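Let us practice reading a record.
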Amino acid sequence: MGIAKRYKQTIATMKHLLKHFWLFESRHVKDSSFSLPLFKGREFIALVVMLLCLLAINLGLRYKNFLALQDAKSIEAKVALQYAKDNKTIFKLKTKDGFNLYTIEHTPNSALKDLQNKDVRVLGKAQKCTFLDSFKSCFFINMGMALLPSSTTLLDLIVAQHENALLSNLYSALFLGTSLDPNLRHVSNSLGLAHIIAISGFHLGILSLLLYIILMPLYRIFQRHYFPYRNAYFDIGVLILACMGGYLVLLDFQPSFFRAFLMAALAFFLLYSGLKLISFVSLSLCVLFALSLDLSLAFNIGFLLSVAGVFYIFLFIKYVKTKSMLLTVVLFNLLLFLQMMPIVHYFFPYFSPFQLVSIPVGLAFVVFFPLSLLLHIFGFGGSIDFLLLPFLDMKFHLSEVYTPLFLLGIYIVFSLASIFSKKAYYLLCAFGICFYAFNLWVYIKSLV
């Protein structure tokens, strides 16, 4: 009975924290806790110098590895993507040093074994490539490819629980950040599910909440008998961060999850230091720290979209105030969807009115993701396949609209101005609505 009571208290505390987050007031009492500035003059200068030194060290190490790659006669890498093009097979490789390489096998894809997510050795040489290009991708001339031996992996365990190959691919993308099959990518683009499937801060938040629900009642039992003086929230927070750090390593520092982990660690530090938790300065610091560790993140679309998503979340928290939790959740998802559209369409042009389905799907995903994860851990991952099978072969009509660079520049200016002006934020919302309306008009016109 005591455990049940403590569990109810934990749930009540979680509800209070969630309510505090959604209804967060940006106004603070002067000199109160959580209102102290993050940095002052000299501290900021010292931080910039430290980040520049860290960037210089990492650039030096990367340049050394780049020179070694230019002289290499063979490489060992993981196949991140394999697809057919013009009766040839294209491989996207990721080396242990973090270089993204493309190579071609002059054989139809249908005649080759599926090597995606496998470790391979490729004989050949790197085509001439500048150091700047290496942050994006370079080409490796393929003179022979061999599959390297490997032991059973988590990917194999996921695949073994599903009879349908597309579902295996979907769950491996959800849990391990692997690339989506083209058929699933079409469904994802049509329903606007890319931000849900691609591992990001959304997944980190759900996993952290799941760990909190599991660990807190257990911690309370031991705390009562052995260490009643400890701060349970602090200890559980550290433990959750450690678990998420291990997951980050397992994902091979997947960019958007890496950004989310850095943000979570910084938020934890700020929370227990009495500093501003929701701050554009803290977001900037997190981005600069990530780039100082790996400058190639500046060319990673997933990382850039992830940062933009957090930026618009902060704007929402700053300006949107409602007394209804339900209304807040609806507005949060709708406004974030509209505000991200102009940026997403700079990289990906696909549009369908069915993309609004991503809003209720995102809410349901909060339950689906931890449930499916637990089922896979205990070997029953295929038990809910019947729920997803009807959607795998769905075909949708898509229109294409790219955001022009000049329009993106204007939108970014309005976005930055929104940090200081509520009117600019309203214009930003209007911009998103108009952009959606224009895409809808293009879509309807393409049906005629």
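A brief commentary: The chain has a mean pLDDT of 84.
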